[in-house]
Amino acid sequence: MQKIVHLLGSAGIAMSSCLPITTLAAEGAPETASYQVINQEHTVTGVVLDETGQPVIGATIVSKSNPKLMGTTDVNGQFSMKVASDNDVLVFTYIGYQKKEVPLKGKRVLSVEMKEDTKTLNDVVVTAFGATQKKETVVGSIQQVKPEGLRVPGSNISNAFAGRLAGVIATQSSGMPGSNGSNFYIRGISTISGATNPLIVMDGMEISQDDLNHLDPDVIESFSILKDASATAMYGTRGANGVLIITTKSGADLEKPKLTFRVEGNVTVPTSKPKFVKGAEFMQLYNEAVKNEGTGSTLYTDEQIANTRNHVNPYVFPDVDWYKEIFRNTAFNQKANMNIRGGTKKIVYFMNLNLSHETGMLKNRSRDFFSFNNNINYTRLAFQNNIDFNMSKSSKIALHLYAGLDNMHGPMTGNTDISSTMNSIYSQVIAANPVLFPIMYEDLSNDGWLHWGFKQIGNGGSSNPLAQLVNGYQDTFASTITANLNFDQKLDFITKGLAFHAMASFKNWSKSSNYRGMNYNRYTMQGYTRNSDGSYTYTTVPVGDPQQPVLSNSGSNAGDRRYYGQAYFDYNRAFGNHTVSGMLLWNINQYESNRYGNDLTNLLGSLPSRKMGFAARATYDYLHRYLVEFNAGYNGSEQFAKGHRWGFFPSIGLGYVMSEENYWKPLQNVISNFKLRGTYGLVGNDQYGYERFIYQQVITLTGNGSFTTGIPGNKVSYSGPGWTRLGNNDVSWEVGHKLDLGFDIQLFNALSITFDWFRERRSNIFQQKLSIPNYLGTANTKIYGNLAEVVNHGVDLAVSYNKAINKDLAIQFQGTLTYNNNKITVYDEAPGTREAMKYKGKNVKTAWGYISNGLFIDDADVTNGPVSTLGNITIAPGDIKYVDQPDAEGKYDGKITSDDQVPLGVTEPRLIYGFGPSVSYKKWDFSFFFQGRGNVALILRDIQPFGTSTHRGVLQFVADDRWSPDNQDPNAAFPRLTETFNNNNTASSSYWLRNGRFLKLKNAEIGYSFKNIRVYANGTNLLTFSPFKLWDPEMGGGNYTSKYPTQLTVNVGCQITIN
Length: 1059
Hints:
Belongs to the TonB-dependent receptor family. The protein is mainly beta.
C-alpha cells in the first residue's frame, strides 16, 4: 500500500522542484532575525524508508531550527538538503506516516525509517490496471487489504478471505495439501452457466486461483478488491465477476541490503474424524437390517458375533477398523521464506525465495510391504525477482520474474490426480466392511504372494482399501513461469502529468505425472473348522489367477500458456481547486491449452483463444468534494459470430464528500470524514461454460446421430447423420447491469465504516433452449441462446477501529458482513414443468427434493399414507414419509413421484461475516478472528450402510440415532436399516436437510518482538460453534467421509530482519 502512496507523491516532487525553496516553507513559520550558526550550514544526504524497506517518495524534511531549510525525497526515497548546524533536528513528514524527528548529532548521512499512521493508512488505493487514486476521491466500491492480514497458517492465501474481505463469499471444503484453498466469489453468483470466478490480476498479468493460493504474502505490496461496475467496467468482458488486483513488492535504494528470514512449523489434525461401529455391533445391525427388510439373507450367528467381539481369530473372525489402519491423527509441515531488498539510485531489486513442505494424513503402510512411501508429500519452491532500472529521471524499465515448482507425491488408485485419488480412498473406507475379510491372510500355500483379503458379494464385492492404497504411487511435477516487462515514461515535456506505460507478459504452466503400480492378488476364505482345542483352521482360494506383481508405469501431461500485452497513456493534474485524471488503454490477451483427443471439446479447446480490448477512464473532482468518474471498456471476443464480437461496457460514478463542506467543520472532531457515492454501469462475460464457437453447427456424419420426432407417448427415432448442435449466429455477451450505492464514514479519527448496497441484473445469460417441442425433430440437438436472466442483490459492510491508547498500548478491530441473494427471473423452461419445479424465481444454487413428514409409525400409517413410487423395496414402518404435492390444478394423486419435488434450500452461503481485535502492548502482540456464515443448507447423502453388493460399514452416529424395532421414534435422525439400498430413504429430501450455519474461531495469534526478531504462535480452525455436529459444516453436505477433511492447525514461527 505504501508503494501506492509513494507513486502519487512523485507527482508532487516534480511540481515542487520547479519552485524556489523559500516558497516551500510552512505557512506561518516563525522567522528568525539572525542566525548565529549561519556559518555552520552544510549539506546532509540520506534515504527515507518505510517499515518494509520501501522508499518513501515525496516525504518532506524540514529543519526544526530554521524551517526555511527543507527538502523532499525523490523516487528512490533519497534527499539532499542544507541544515543549520551539526546539532540541528530534522522533521520528517508524509501523508500516511507518523511524523518523525531525527537529531543530527554531527551525522552527514542518514537512513530514516518512517512508521505507518493507521489513521491515514488507506489514503491511496489501487484501481483498474494498477492505477492509483486517493481514497478520498474514489467513488467505486474498492477494498484495499494489508498483506499481513492475509497471512494465516497453511499455504493458501484464499483461506484468509472469508470474513476479512467485505463482499467476498469464500468456503474451504478440503484440507488436502496443495488443494486446500477456498472457493470464492465476489458478491455471490449472478449467472447459471457462465464463469463465476473473479478475474485475478498480479502485476498486470491474469493468473488463476491456484496461482493466487500459492502466492506468499511476503511478496505482496498491495491487494485490492474491485467490486462494482465503476471499478471493473474497464476490464469489460473479464470484469463481470469482480477483480482482485495484486501488486508485488519492488526494491529500494538502501545504504545496505535489507534481509528478512521467516521459518514456520506446524502440526495439523482433522477437524473431525469418522467413527465406525466395531465388528460385533456391525453384525448385530446387519441382522437387524435383514429382518427389517425380510430378504431372508443369512444372518450372523451368536457364535460369530461373540468370536468377533472376543477377537478369537483375526483371519476367521476379522474386526478391521479400516479408518485407523489407513489414516493417522497428525501431520507435520514446514515453511521457510527469505527475501532481500536493496539497490542504488539506478537499479533497485527485490528477491524472495519461499520453500514449503506439507504431508498428508495417510499412514505409511506401503513401507510395511514395499520400499516406497505413499503418503502425500507436497513440496513447493517459489522464487520472485523484481528489478527496476531508472534509465533517467523520467524513464523506468522493470522486469518481474516468477518461478514456482511443485512436486506432489502420493497414492494411486488409478490414473487420476491425487485429489481424486484421496477422495476415492475416503469413499472406499466408508464402503469397507469391518468383518468381511482381514487386511491380509496368511500365506497358507507358501506361494510367496501377499494374500490380500477379499470376498465376493453377489455381482460385486467390498474392495480392500489398504491393498489398493499400498500397491501404487504417483509423482506429479508442475512448474509455473511468469515474466513481466514494464516500461514507464513521463511525458512532462509535452504537458505536466502525462505519462506512457507499456507491458508485455508471458505465463507458462506445465504438469507431468507418473503413475506406478503393481497387480495384487486377492484371496477369499473358502471355509473354516473349529478344532477340539477351540482354535480355528481355515482355507483360502485366490480370486482369479494369481498374478506376478510387476511394476507398471504410465503418465500424463498437461499445460497452458498465456500471452498478454497492454499500452496506455494516463494523465493526472491539478488546476487550483480542480483535479482531473484520465487513461486510454489498449490490450491483447491470448490463451493456449494442451488438450488431447479427437472429440469436439478437446479439439476446439486446443485452439488458441484470443481477446482484444480498449479501455478509457476519466475522473474529475472539485475541492476533493464533488466527484465524477467515467469508465468504459470496448472488448472483442472470438467466441461469437462476426457482428457480435465487440461489446461496449460503460459506467459512471458520482461522489459527494460532505465532510469537506465548510458547514461540516464543527463536526470534524466527531465525524472526520463522510462521503456518499453511487455507481452504475455495464460489464460483460463471454465465459459461458459450454463448447466454443457456439455460432457454428456440429453435425454427426458417422451414423451415430439420431433424429427424433413425434409427441410424448408417440415418438419416432431414426439413426443416421444428424445435428448435434445447431449454430446460433446471434449469441453474444452476458451483460451485467450493476448498481452500487454506498457511504464511507470515519468517527473520532479512529472508527471507519464502509457500507454498500448493490444490485446486479445479469441479462443475456447463456442457456440451452428447452421449450422446443419434440415434433420439430430437435430432441437430440443442442440449441443455445442468450435466454436467461438473474438478479443478484445484497449489502456488504466493513468496520475498522484503530486507537493508540498510549505509547505502549494500541488496539485495532476489524469486522465485515456480506449478505447476497440471487433469483432467476427469466429461464427457458421445458414444456409441462410444474410451477414448483420451475427455475424461475429460485436461487441459482437451489437444492431440490421431497418434503418429509417424519417416519412411518406403523403399518396403518403406511397404508393410509401416499404411495411411494421411489422405493425399490416395500415401504414399511421406519421409512421416510413424504408429502404429496398438488398438481397444476391443485389436485393430489396420492402418490409420491418425481413431480412431488420442491425447492429445499440454498447450498451456497448467503451470509458471511467476521470480526476480531488485535492488541499490541510494548513488545507483545495478540489477535484473534472469528468467522461465520449463515443462510446455507446442507443436504446429507450416501450415509446409508450395507447394500446387497457391498455391505458397507456403519457410522456410529447412524447406529446411535436410528429408527429400530426397539426405538420406534418417528423423529429419529436416521430411518430404519435395510440390507438393500432403499431408494425411498436415500432420495434427496427435507429429511436430510440440515442448517449449515456456524461461527468459528478462525485464527488466533500471539507474538513477541525483540530488536530485529519476532517469535509467534498461531492457529486456525481452532473452535467451531454450529447446530450441525457431525463434521465441519464448512465442508458442505453429502457424506464428509468421502472428502479430505479440513484441518485444525497450530503453528509456530520466527521472523528475523537484518539491515
